[in-house]
Amino acid sequence: MKVYGKGGWYTDRRSNHSPLCPSMKLLSPLFLCIALLLAGCSEPKRFVSTDLSMVDWGKDFSLTDHKGQPRRLADFRGKAVVLFFGYTQCPDVCPTTLTIMREAMTLLGDDARRVQVLFVTVDPARDTPQLLAQYVPAFNPDFLGLHADEKTIAALAKDFKVFYAKQPGSTPGTYSIDHSTGSYAFDPKGKLRLLLRHGEAPANVAADLKLLLSEKQ
């Protein structure tokens, strides 16, 4: 850089030196590397549904499917399992949930083969195996209806924190049942992981199930 002194104009050689001290010269590339690493990192994908990974309940069940076969959670090891409590004469919540699951399975494509949807009746008095066999597969032929006696269903519902209660109808046989509306999702290892909210978009349900399936087993 040209500067003016007593002897006139001259070149200041010091201006060619870096203003950084030697230690700063060493740190600058390090800061650059850290910045690049942070820029390349992205947050892991998160579930849309409520995470239940830390709960210590909902570990198993012992029921019978609508084909007459005894079923436990271990029967579906290697698959993501969606478990829903309802009843066949439910006017809105149950058909809506099963329809959402049907659409989610379509969105999953080939991965749908690794997902099992289970419908547990809270109305064993009316939901016979024959009725479950007509109702549940109507939404998807791979869906299974599960049943047991009233005492077993009550104990299972309590274990899964599911509420249900009969509401009288005009006749003894036309009662309705108020019940919890969420569905439970298990990972392929059989661990309870998610609470799927009622009315969740099929795309979100499919995305959450895909995450469960993609985890290292």
Can you describe this structure?
The protein is of the alpha+beta class. The chain has helices spanning 22-40, 93-108, 129-135, 150-159, 202-214; strands at residues 2-5, 8-11, 50-51, 62-65, 70-72, 80-86, 115-121, 144-147, 164-167, 176-179, 183-186, 192-196. The chain has two domains: 2-40, no CATH class; 50-214, Glutaredoxin (3-Layer(aba) Sandwich). It is 30% helix and 24% strand. An eight-stranded mixed sheet has the order 3-12-11-6-7-8-4-5, with helices on both faces. Strands 1-2 form a two-stranded antiparallel sheet. It has a two-stranded antiparallel ribbon with strand order 9-10. Helix 2 (93-108) packs across helix 5. Residues 35-40 have low confidence and may be disordered.
Structure described in brief:
By secondary structure, the protein is of the alpha+beta class.
Descriptive tags:
alpha+beta, eight-stranded mixed sheet, 217 residues, 12 strands, Glutaredoxin, single chain, 2 domains
